[in-house]
Amino acid sequence: MSAEPLLSVLIGIGLSAACGFRVFVPLLVMSVASLSGHLTLSPGFEWIGTYPALLAFTVATVAEITGYYIPWLDHLLDLIAAPAAVIAGIVAMASSISGMSPFMRWSLALIAGGGIAATFHGITGLARVTSTATTGGLANPIVSTIEAAGASVLSILAIAIPLAGVAALAALLSLVWWFIRARKRRHEESLS
């Protein structure tokens, strides 16, 4: 695989993961990056880099981020966002991949893009449920702020420095794995 397709896959991986945090933030960043010439979209996805799409993604991003600060609405949005994150992850991956056959692009988009978005959406959902269970929902705005910031930083990193974006994902997954293992050990010790 030459450098260009590999680089576009790394971009897609980072953007797909960001879709797991927030559905519309990565699409907004993609639109801005495309309009400013920092991201070349795959054929058929040029619409993401148009001003009507920019406006739509801006409105959707503001509504999504705001909705996550409303106590009962945040859990409802998590339910709705689960399939939407997968679809957005697929679109983000497919639209960023270049230099590959359509079969390979869509295979990667469906498997990697959708899978990565679903994984990270699951992690954020688990964080929200844990926050609600342990703080009665009082810490949910903090979780929402971290998720929105994570989606923003990850989206920008994915486009500006794709390898750093993937490294950040690996570090985040390692941290989550460590946290789950430590929690499981504490639970097992408390049962002993």
Keywords:
single chain; 192 residues; mainly alpha; 7 helices; 83% helix
Care to describe what's here?
By secondary structure, the protein is an all-alpha fold. It has one domain. The protein is 83% helix and 0% strand. It has seven helices and no strands. The protein has helices spanning 3-21, 24-35, 51-67, 71-96, 102-135, 140-160, 162-191.
Class from helix and strand fractions: mainly alpha
The major sheet is characterized as: none
The helix-strand sequence is HHHHHHH
**Unreliable parts:** none
State the separation between the terminal residues, measured CA to CA: 52 Å
The rough form would be described as globular
Number of individual domains: 1
Gyration radius, in Å: 17 Å
Number of helices: 7
Indicate the percent of residues in helices. over 70%
Helix/strand layout:
Elements: H1 3-21, H2 24-35, H3 51-67, H4 71-96, H5 102-135, H6 140-160, H7 162-191
Helix pairs in contact: 1-2, 1-4, 1-5, 1-6, 1-7, 2-3, 2-6, 4-5, 5-6, 6-7
Write a brief structural summary:
The protein contains seven helices and no strands.
